[in-house]
Amino acid sequence: MSPFIYAGLTEEKQISFLLGTHFIEPNDIITGIAELMGINYSDIHGNSRKDEFVMARQICIGLIALNFPHLTLKEIGGMFNNRHHATILYSIDEYKHSYTHERKFRNMVLLFKNQSNHHYITNPN
After folding, report:
1. 56 CB burial (10 A radius; 0-12, 13-18, 19+)
2. Domain made up of 48-125: CATH architecture
């Protein structure tokens, strides 16, 4: 393989490329959940309190927070229309609670993981 393929990739991503695996990015989670739930990407970022948008938003925020622990609450909030860090913290708590206690919510997360081959996504348990 040409060494030019690896230009700009971190060593970790070069190894991932060679092994045939890939790393998920926060934006991949948002896009995947939007597609899975049949809603627009912009609906997840919006301010609507419609149940399906709130659920999608909480799934995205929860998955991003659990899988990217190096991101601050403020950085995650920046991905969601500059939401306040307290709102992000609340969404993470709701994600954990809903994943544990609500079958529909948990099934949506598991469906996303299975359909998108992101089996390495962290569960809150």
Report:
1. buried
2. Orthogonal Bundle (1.10)
What is the domain partition of the chain in residue ranges?
48-125
- The pLDDT tens digits for 10-61 are 565 555 555 555 557 888 889 889 999 999 999 999 999 999 999 999 999 9
* pLDDT tens-digit map of 66-119: 988 899 999 999 999 999 999 999 999 999 999 999 999 999 999 888 876 554
Q: How many CB atoms lie within 10 A of CB 84?
A: 11
The pTM of the full predicted model, rounded to 2 decimals, is: 0.77
User: Contact 48/57 with Cβ under 8 angstroms?
Assistant: no
DSSP code of residue 46: S
Burial of 70 (0-12, 13-18, 19+ CB in 10 A): exposed
